[in-house]
């Protein structure tokens, strides 16, 4: 049953406060990339691709592991108003998001399989309606799944290199109500919000965010964190189910 909506805050378009937006993911959408995925979460859309470079990152030379790095960009009309292409800007937000994506996706990979190599995960926002960084983590995971599956299918790997399934979700407080997977209007109205990165087993990888107005109590923060972790598990179950369908191979 859908929870009643407060007139003070944005409506949820038929979903209750603890239900994420519908998510769909399709693998193998880019014929030129060895791994790719198109993810739609509500009205937010992400295209993620994986590229393998046959040389180590400078700081990984001589190490037993390879490296994974991520890049994030938003197309000019991903938002309601045209934004200049981010490649032409010194954009601190973009670099912050890229570092988050890299840390999150590395947490899921056993990079010993890619010694002296570098994985690049490019996440491009096609349409933005809130939650682009968490949706990019989900799309990046799906693209890596596609990439690794292709290596297995081709006999280039015999063991599965994804050590754990890592996903993410946003969670916020609108008044005293906890909501998961905030869209843009909810994000603007929230008095606190977190981006929770966790595994499908409920282990926390990273938490980013905080209060927008005043301060949070310890109990409020714990409630946000536990709700977000549970929501990540729900979303990852659905994404894992969809990734089991082999597309484009």
Question: What are the defining features of this structure?
Answer:
alpha+beta, five-stranded mixed beta sheet, 3'-5'-RNA exonuclease activity, tRNA processing, disordered N terminus, 249 residues, globular, 9 strands, RNase_PH, RNA-binding, tRNA binding, Ribosomal Protein S5, domain 2
Model description:
- With 249 residues, the chain is α+β, with helices and mostly antiparallel strands.
- It has a single domain, classed as Ribosomal Protein S5, domain 2.
- The protein contains four helices and nine strands.
- The radius of gyration is 18 Å and the shape is globular.
- The protein starts with 22 loop residues before the first strand and ends in a 6-residue tail after the last helix.
- The N terminus is likely disordered.
- Homohexameric ring arranged as a trimer of dimers.
- Its EC number is 2.7.7.56.
- This is Ribonuclease PH.
Q: Indicate the proportion of strand residues.
A: 25-35%
Structural class label: alpha+beta
- What composes the largest sheet? 5 strands, mixed
Helical amount among residues, as a percent range?
25-40%
Predict the CATH topology: Ribosomal Protein S5, domain 2
The level-1 CATH class: Alpha Beta
Please state the overall shape, judged from the principal axes of the Cα atoms: globular
Strand order of the largest sheet: 1-2-3-5-4
Overall tally of structural domains: 1
For CATH, the homologous superfamily is named as GHMP Kinase, N-terminal domain
- Radius of gyration in whole Å, from Cα? 18 Å
- For the termini, the CA-CA separation is 40 Å
């Amino acid at each position: 049953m859908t929870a009643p909506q407060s007139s003070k805050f944005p409506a949820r378009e038929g979903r209750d406060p603890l239900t994420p937006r519908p998510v769909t993911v399709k693998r193998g959408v880019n014929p030129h990339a060895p791994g790719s995925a198109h993810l739609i979460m509500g009205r937010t859309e992400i295209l993620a691709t994986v590229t393998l470079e046959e040389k180590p990152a400078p700081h990984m030379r001589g190490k037993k592991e390879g490296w994974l790095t991520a890049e994030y960009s938003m197309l000019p009309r991903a938002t309601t108003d045209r934004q200049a292409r981010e490649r032409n800007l010194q954009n601190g937000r973009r670099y912050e998001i890229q570092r988050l994506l890299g840390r999150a996706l590395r947490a899921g990979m056993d990079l010993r399989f890619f010694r002296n190599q570098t994985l690049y995960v490019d996440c491009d926002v096609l349409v933005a309606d809130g939650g682009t960084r968490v949706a990019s983590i989900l799309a990046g995971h799906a693209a890596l799944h596609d990439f690794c599956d292709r290596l297995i299918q081709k006999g280039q790997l015999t063991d599965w290199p994804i050590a754990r399934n890592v996903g993410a979700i946003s969670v916020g407080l609108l008044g005293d109500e906890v909501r998961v997977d905030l869209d843009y209007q909810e994000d603007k109205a929230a008095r606190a919000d977190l981006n929770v990165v966790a595994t499908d087993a409920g282990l926390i990888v990273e938490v980013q965010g905080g209060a927008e107005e005043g301060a949070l109590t310890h109990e409020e923060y714990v409630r946000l964190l536990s709700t977000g972790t549970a929501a990540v598990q729900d979303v990852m179950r659905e994404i894992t189910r969809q990734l089991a369908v082999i597309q484009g191979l």
